[in-house]
Amino acid sequence: MANEKNLKPFKKGDPRINRKGRPKSFNGLRELARMVADEKAKSGNQTLVIDGHSVTVVEAIIRSWAMGKDKRKQQAFIEIAYGKVPDRIEHEMIKPVVVEHVLIHDEQEEEDEDTSTG
User: Fold this and answer.
1) What is the largest CA-CA distance in the chain?
2) Backbone dihedral region of 97: left (phi > 0), alpha (psi from -120 to 50 degrees) or beta?
3) Which one of 60, 64, 66, 93 has the fewest beta carbons within 10 angstroms of its own beta carbon?
């Protein structure tokens, strides 16, 4: 919890105020991640080679997802490769279904209630 003695409210023109708000996107971070993803993967001090070609970091990650035991990573790999499975199922009914509500009124039961309360 903050020490209330050290709290200083903002004053007009205070440089601590973030007038522009939070960043709208992470373009810088995304660009850095793409640069790292395109780098050659290393195992120890040597470039990782599979099937005669140097593997990038992103390829090494994708391969580890595909061959790993974690089902969530395998699912993520499949979704990246082939697209996400739709969550919503659409169905068209060929023949409409009619549901009827029938209310059965029992007069004898009503008479029994009237005599028990009176």
Assistant:
1) 96
2) beta
3) 93
Full domain range(s) for residue 44: 40-84
**Would you say 43 and 60 are in contact if contact means Cβ atoms under 8 Å apart?**
no
pTM above 0.70, yes or no: no
Q: How far apart are CA 31 and CA 39, in angstroms?
A: 13
What the block records as the tokens of 42 is: 């290393």
Domain assignment of residue 16, yes or no: no
* Model confidence pLDDT, tens digit, residues 4-58: 778 888 788 888 777 777 777 788 888 889 999 999 999 889 999 999 999 999 9
Q: Is residue 90 included in any domain, yes or no?
A: no
Closest Cα to residue 18, out of 10, 8, 26, 28? 10
Strand partners, 49: 54
Q: pLDDT tens for residues 44-97?
A: 899 999 999 999 999 999 999 999 999 999 999 999 999 987 777 777 777 777
Which of 18, 37, 17, 21 has its CA nearest to residue 29?
Answer: 37
How many domains, in total, are found in the chain? 1
User: Could you tell me if residue 45 is inside a domain?
Assistant: yes
